[in-house]
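FORM 7B: Structural annotation worksheet

SECTION A. Query
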Amino acid sequence: MNMLVTGGAGFIGSNFVHYTVKNFPDTKVTVLDKLTYAGSRDNLREIADKITFVEGDICDRALVDDLFSKNDVVVHFAAESHNDNSLHNPEPFIHTNLVGTFTLLEAARAHGNRYHHISTDEVYGDLELDDPRKFTPTTPYNPSSPYSSTKAGSDHLVRAWVRSFGVKATISNCSNNYGPYQHVEKFIPRQITNILTGQRPKLYGAGENVRDWIHVDDHNSAVHTILQKGKIGETYLIGADGEKNNKDVLELILELMDQPKDAYDHVNDRPGHDLRYAIDASKLRDELGWSPHYTNFRDGLAATIEWYKQNEWWWRPQKDTTEAKYKELGR
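SECTION B. Predicted structure
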């Protein structure tokens, strides 16, 4: 199999490439990545000789068409994905998440590729903290940020191209990922690297916002399950029953790193901060037989902390610039 992975130098995408190379050695992987601030060839350094890397934009029609003509399967991770950045400047999110997805779908339409679209649970908006419900594939879309609204739009484009043009596509909406190679602007690696650099971790508001955490390797094993067993045109939600509020996550990080549980500062909450996400992954589990490896969040978090301890060479160059940007925002 020849597989094209867009955004394969980013956090989830690079972990997917590592997972594929390790578990599917007969698959020839090509990575297409624009190498914005959130993508780095260092994420793929250990397997650079086992893949083909192409630096480029998913909005480049000629390049995309050429790559689709040479690959059977396309997995689309490429996205602008940081909520804070979308509030500061929405334009790149429109360009990459909407125009980029359109460009890929047109190429898939022309070449008949098997196409899988990576999306987010944020397209559904949020739930009240005391609401017993979880997101399902039939939950109405209700995005609340420029980021989530552009991801919602890209999902709708995929469904339209399946129905109108017969594109062989599936969609997955996943809960919050954590694990190796995640940029230090994100919640969990920011707190870990703050502690490692002698800075106090930061908690938005009261820290009551709930996320449904999943280790990135479990996300990527689910994507492979969907590629192998998923039904064309269907949407599958990926989650590992990892609901935790931000305060509990931060205090667990401090505990695992031998710090006092109250050794952090509260900072201004971000505008429109969604209250709670929760995934019902029963369709994926029951119909396709998938299950996560990390059934205990504490174990996955401990493994993630250890990775950041052992790989300072990777995250250190990002740290000062990221914290300077947060300081400007008062967060």
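SECTION C. Observations
Residues 91-111 form the longest helix (21 residues). The mean pLDDT is 94.

SECTION D. Sign-off
Analyst initials: ____
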